[in-house]
Amino acid sequence: MDTKAQIGIGAIVTIAIAAIVGLILFQAVATNVEQGTRAVTGVVSSGESYQITAVLDTVVEVPGQELVTISKVQNATGGVDVPTANYTLTECVRKSDNLKGICYTGKGAGDNTAGESGVGLVNISYSYYPNGYIDDAGARSIAGIIILLAAIGIAMTVLAGNRFDWW
Hints:
By secondary structure, this protein is an alpha+beta fold. It contains 2 helices and 7 strands; from the N terminus they run αβββββββα. It is rod-shaped and about 80 Å long. Residues 45-50 have low confidence and may be disordered.
């Protein structure tokens, strides 16, 4: 009788546990890698749970790690576009956690009665890279390869079981 074809219950349980733990970790890591390698289009408006109330020359931290593009800044009450001279939306070091982020500062110039001042309630539309974004293109590629190799490892564990003599 060939003993290579036999597998014990302990080996089956070990393989099942390894596959379950591997899939749980795979999902968590894959989600973080996906978030760390793509841009997000963010709209920060006064009507949402994250409200921007810009005070003259006061820095307001907005979501994101790295600013990609600025679509527009509008006065929340009138919907009038705020001229770029009346605000700054730049990358900064956040005071809340000392990490790289995006900050909005209202300059307060312009005709406030027309709703074009950079202070008060504003709606900001911009694209950004989220917190945890991987800046380096090579590192983003390696992160994707790690996910691929993890999937191959899980598949090999399930398919090969305790038969590692075929290597």
